[in-house]
């Protein structure tokens, strides 16, 4: 038998759904069961004169009606007054209120496919979801039982960078703490012990470790907790990004310093006071460290009271200044759109890695306080300190790998 999509439905909803690729049903004619059902449905063994018996009623439609049909057995349709040209008479009848408004319990739809891993480095999670809409509960029917979202761990190793740290499994990676016994950084999972201060879980996945400086006793006001990176070799510029939580009404201060090989510190970033309960992203460009080894240092200063837990997670480094936004490829000509030649890098071009040119141009432009920069002719680094009409000669598609060709600019803008 071949069933309609609403076969056995009590509520006029589809009960049968096509699944692509599935191979079901009789395709070479009727089965024995098909023939018995057809004969019985159409009263074929009684074939002769006049009407068949009425069929059973159909399910109720949206406008609360049901129908039944009977068939004319005769070869002459005039034997069956009221019959259609197809030999069928259809009778409609109102459904009862109970039938039309019967409660329908909800049922889960299919699971979505798994999401990608939440991290492109180390431990993350992936998830899939389903909704209670196949069908949705109606007329006080029950909601689906069971979970709507499922989560699984996933681990991505390929792009891990050794300088990045997510404090996974309580590891400090290359970071080292100072030894103030009353107030220091410590690894932690879940909420901190004092309500209304500290985060609820780590930033990486919500399930793993972060580090924080606990403000409860024995810590006292203005205690200092230091977290110092390994020695980094000289580099022209880098962007460090991190997540911090500074939740608590007597919040102290968090600062980031760069420390040279003689131990003198320069402040790159600082935040003071309550910043709310969520993780917030921070970033700082590390520049002007091209001659000596250096370290990065986080310094937490405890506030006047114990509602002052300061937390950190997901500290990453990348080899560009922070926040260089790609504005795109544009034509240029004499009377340059970006007026200053910051540096000519044409004798250093690595034709297999044009990003080296972009990075060096970006670092030099950042050091010299340019707001906009562009790479033209594969190796010329042009800039403008103020807002300029970088697009005044029109857009172009004559750029490659983030650099412009002859008289085209690939333009970037610093966002910090
Ligand atoms: Ca973490």
From TrEMBL:
Cited Pfam families: Astacin, MAM, TSP_1
Keywords, comma-separated and alphabetical: Disulfide bond, Glycoprotein
One of the GO BP terms on file: proteolysis
Gene3D superfamilies: 2.60.120.200, Collagenase (Catalytic Domain) (3.40.390.10), Thrombospondin type-1 (TSP1) repeat (2.20.100.10)
Native source organism of the sequence: Paramuricea clavata (Red gorgonian)
InterPro entries in alphabetical order: ConA-like_dom_sf (IPR013320), MAM_dom (IPR000998), MAM_domain-containing (IPR051560), MetalloPept_cat_dom_sf (IPR024079), Peptidase_M12A (IPR001506), TSP1_rpt (IPR000884), TSP1_rpt_sf (IPR036383)
Protein name: Zinc metallo ase nas-4
Phylogenetic classification of the source organism: Eukaryota, Metazoa, Cnidaria, Anthozoa, Octocorallia
A GO CC term assigned to this protein in UniProt: membrane
GO molecular function terms noted in the UniProt entry: metalloendopeptidase activity
């Amino acid at each position: 038998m071949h069933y309609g999509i609403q076969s056995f439905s009590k509520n006029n909803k589809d009960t049968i759904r096509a699944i692509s690729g599935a191979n079901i049903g009789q395709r070479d004619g009727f089965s024995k069961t098909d023939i018995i059902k057809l004969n019985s449905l159409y009263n074929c063994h009684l074939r002769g004169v006049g009407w068949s018996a009425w069929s059973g009623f159909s399910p109720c439609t949206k406008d609360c009606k049901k129908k039944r049909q009977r068939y004319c057995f005769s070869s002459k349709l005039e034997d069956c007054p009221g019959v259609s040209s197809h030999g069928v008479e259809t009778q409609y009848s109102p459904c009862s209120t109970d039938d039309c408004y019967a409660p329908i319990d909800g049922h889960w739809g299919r699971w979505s496919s798994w999401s990608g891993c939440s991290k492109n480095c180390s431990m993350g999670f992936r998830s899939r979801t389903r909704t209670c809409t196949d069908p949705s509960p109606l007329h006080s029917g029950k909601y689906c039982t069971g979970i709507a979202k499922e989560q699984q761990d996933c681990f991505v190793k390929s792009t891990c960078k050794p300088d990045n740290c997510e404090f996974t499994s309580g590891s400090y990676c290359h970071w080292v703490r100072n030894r103030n016994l009353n107030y220091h950084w410590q690894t932690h999972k879940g909420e901190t012990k004092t309500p209304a201060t500290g985060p609820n879980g780590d930033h990486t996945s919500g399930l793993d470790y972060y580090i924080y400086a606990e403000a409860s006793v024995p810590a006292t006001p203005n205690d200092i907790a230091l977290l110092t990176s390994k020695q980094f070799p000289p580099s022209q510029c880098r962007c460090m990004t991190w997540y911090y939580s500074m939740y608590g009404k007597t919040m102290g201060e968090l600062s980031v310093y760069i420390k040279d090989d003689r131990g003198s510190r320069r402040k790159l970033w600082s935040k003071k006071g309550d910043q709310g309960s969520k993780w917030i992203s921070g970033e700082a460009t590390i520049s002007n460290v091209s001659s000596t080894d250096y370290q990065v240092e986080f310094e937490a200063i405890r506030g006047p009271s114990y509602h002052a837990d300061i937390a950190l997670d997901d500290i990453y480094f990348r080899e560009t200044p922070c926040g260089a936004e790609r504005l795109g490829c544009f034509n240029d000509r004499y009377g340059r759109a970006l007026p200053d030649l910051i540096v000519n890098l044409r004798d250093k071009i690595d034709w297999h890695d044009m990003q080296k040119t972009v990075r060096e141009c970006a670092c030099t432009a950042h050091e010299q306080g340019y707001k906009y920069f562009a790479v033209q002719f594969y190796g010329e680094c042009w800039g403008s300190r103020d807002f300029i009409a970088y697009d005044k000669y029109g857009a172009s598609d004559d750029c490659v790998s983030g650099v412009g060709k002859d008289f085209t600019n690939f333009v970037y803008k610093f966002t910090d």
